Prior knowledge:
Layout: E1 2-6, E2 9-14, E3 46-49, H1 51-55
Antiparallel strand pairs: 1-2, 2-3
Amino acid sequence: MLEVTAAGLTFDLGGLAPGAALPAFQPLQWLGFEGSPDRSLIERVEVRAGNHIRAGASCTP
């Protein structure tokens, strides 16, 4: 897991080497591709809100 900070917010990235790969899934539609690309060339990366963001999920704005 890698932690990235952008604009003061922290996000966790998963599926990056040398960690375990995430299982790929079949998207409903491909955006930015002409036709369907070769799925063997596609890798999945997970971006999740960091702990401080998830902790505030129940707070009202």
